[in-house]
Amino acid sequence: MSGRIYFDSDKAFGFLQTKGHVFTLRKAPAKPDPHVLQTVNLWRHGESLGVSAKRLRVAEGFGISLAPYVGDSGFSSVEEWVEEISRLHKGQTIKNPILYYVHEVRG
To answer: Model confidence over 49-107: pLDDT tens digits?
Structure first.
């Protein structure tokens, strides 16, 4: 199944490019919203990369701790990750963020 997840964060995208995987927090489901997407279009960088994007869970508010995921997010701390989320969403509150694990699929 195909879908799109856009990466506006240079840190998260750079981590995906370098490490081949990344955790990403989203305010809305990927479209379509299956549990696994096979193709992700990386909009900001104008290229497509074959990846699998697995929806891990819907967080109620920031009721889940991001600490277990920060090491594979591209950010050095939870605080830095949350600041980037806030910047990307122009300070809007994200009520039920969705955590995805995205990893490159090598053919």
So the answer is: 666 677 666 555 555 678 889 999 999 998 899 899 889 888 887 777 778 888 876 65
Q: Are 28 and 98 in contact (CB under 8 A)?
A: yes
Phi, psi of 103 (to 5 degrees): -140, 145
- Contact of 19 with 3, CB cutoff 8 Å: no
Other beta carbons within 10 angstroms of residue 86's beta carbon come to 13
- Scored b (16 or more CB within 10 A) or e, 14-47 reads ebbeeeeebbbbbeeebeeeeeebebbbbeeeee
Q: CA–CA separation, 107 vs 104, rounded Å? A: 10
